[in-house]
Design a protein that fits this description.
Shape: elongated
Number of strands: 19
CATH superfamily of the largest domain: Bira Bifunctional Protein, Domain 2
Number of helices: 13
Helix content: 25-40%
Radius of gyration: 30 Å
Largest sheet: 6 strands, mixed
CATH architecture of the largest domain: 2-Layer Sandwich
CATH topology of the largest domain: BirA Bifunctional Protein, domain 2
Structural class: alpha+beta
Distance between the termini: 48 Å
Length: 443
């Protein structure tokens, strides 16, 4: 007989969680019986925690109203201290029974870590030099019936942090900085493109045909029409139609969905910006890309130079343009230009220790680049001129029809964009699609 038993440490944690919840529920009941709503109403806030600390010299002695979550409780008889955390940071609260009155002190005695409160009081500095709010009124805004995870033991698992972002934000305050920066990034992208005459548009998320990029789609069903639809893998096809219709500069910033693997570089649901400009080629789009990124860095970070994972990065334009084959020769030590026979492809595959699935020149170039070049592209750089076999929507180079006018910018080993001169020859496009179909049928 097989039984599913929890490890002893998990059983103990569950029991402790249950005990804490029972204690919190008991406090809630006592609050209810005293006629105090444990889940409060609205509360007018006049100042944030960090504002008070940063401007103490001007605010000392003034009355303020702050609200947030309790992150620490320390009590000594009729005097207690709390750490209040709001979106800006933390500030200490000083609570004394004869200052707040019997009712509010009763509320204070029934507080737990994680509860939301609002207070009003005078700004002062304690004998130990801590900038604090001397509480005169205390309002319970929301009673937390579940305890917060232990900061050092309960929320270090990356998977849990990613799946429960709200807990991550509570226990790891610096995570807020990432969320705030992301909001500023999106706003600055919109501002930059709008200032360049681009129109922001919205195109359908539900598509009748999966297209616009090479990826496996999510499939859903439309009940009223009784038909299957696809969550978009890219807004590309609709944006191109707008260009055809005469909107010369358009962009869309929104969600896309790709039903493929998950990693730190890939997510099934992600936000992407896609930009189209009539009468421009990939040189102009590269300039637009580097100018956009430098503008965002300057706006969000205050500089085009910043540190990332111990690396000093400078996104100041212009960035180098490095042809893909030149990059492979520089970092992998092989020259893959010109025609290659099947035998030569196999010899290079073995020399570079690539997988058995590499059978064509395009596959050889792609795999060699991914293994030997991509991780070493730390400083901002544009990789340009990709083989036509792996760039089905890009225009052929005028001086080399086997290559395309395509670019991908890389920073700290990550591809951050993909762009090209749009293939506008419908006959060439049709021929490439037919060749792809033939290759698929041939396995």
């Amino acid at each position: 007989m097989v039984t599913n038993r929890l490890p002893p440490e998990d059983i103990q944690a569950a029991e402790e969680m249950n005990d804490q919840m029972q204690a919190r529920l008991a406090k809630k009941k006592e609050l209810d019986e005293a006629g105090i709503d444990p889940f409060g109403r609205s509360f007018e806030v006049t100042h944030r925690a960090t504002d008070i600390i940063d401007n103490f010299d001007q605010l000392e002695g003034q009355h303020v109203r702050v609200a947030g979550r309790i992150m620490a409780l320390r009590g000594h008889g009729k005097v207690g201290f709390l750490d209040l955390q709001d979106i800006s940071g933390r500030i200490q609260l000083y609570v004394k029974a004869d200052l707040v009155g019997e009712r509010d002190y009763f509320v204070y005695q029934h507080l737990d870590l994680g509860d939301f409160i609002g207070v009003s009081g005078e700004i002062f500095r304690t004998k130990r030099g801590e900038i604090s709010v001397k509480v005169e009124e205390l309002t319970l805004l929301a009673k937390a019936l579940r305890p917060l995870p232990d900061k050092w033991h309960g929320l270090q698992d990356v998977e849990i942090r990613y799946r429960h972002r709200y807990l991550d934000l509570v226990v790891n305050p610096k995570v807020k900085d990432t969320f705030i920066a992301r909001t500023k990034i999106i706003s600055s992208i919109r501002n930059f493109l709008s200032s360049r005459g681009f129109l922001e548009v919205e195109t359908p998320v539900l598509h009748s045909i999966a297209g616009g990029a090479n990826a496996r789609p999510f499939i859903t069903h439309h009940n009223a029409l009784d038909m299957d639809l696809y969550l978009r893998i890219a807004p590309e096809l609709y944006l191109k139609r707008l260009i055809v219709g005469g909107l010369e500069r358009v962009f869309e910033l929104g969600k896309n969905f790709r039903n493929e693997g998950i990693s730190t570089k890939h997510n099934p649901e992600y936000t992407m910006v896609e930009v189209y400009q009539a009468y421009a080629d990939y040189h102009e789009m590269m300039s637009l890309t580097e100018e956009l990124i430098s503008y965002v860095a300057q706006t969000v970070k205050g500089s085009t130079k910043f540190e990332f994972q111990g690396q000093l990065i400078d996104v100041t334009p212009p960035w180098p343009r490095l042809p893909m084959l030149d990059a492979i020769e520089q970092y992998a030590g092989v020259d893959l230009s010109g025609d290659l026979t099947t035998v030569q492809i196999e010899e290079y595959r073995k020399q570079l220790k690539l997988g058995d699935e590499v059978r064509t020149k395009a596959q050889l170039i792609n795999e060699a680049f991914d293994r030997y070049v991509e991780p070493r592209l730390i400083e901002p750089v544009f990789i340009v001129d990709y083989p036509v076999e792996i760039s089905p929507l890009a225009k052929r180079k005028a001086d080399d029809p086997t290559m395309t006018d395509r670019f991908e910018p890389y920073i700290v080993g990550w591809e951050i964009a993909n762009g090209f001169s749009e293939l506008n020859d419908p006959l060439d496009q049709r021929q490439r699609f037919l060749q792809q179909m033939e290759q698929r049928q041939a396995g």
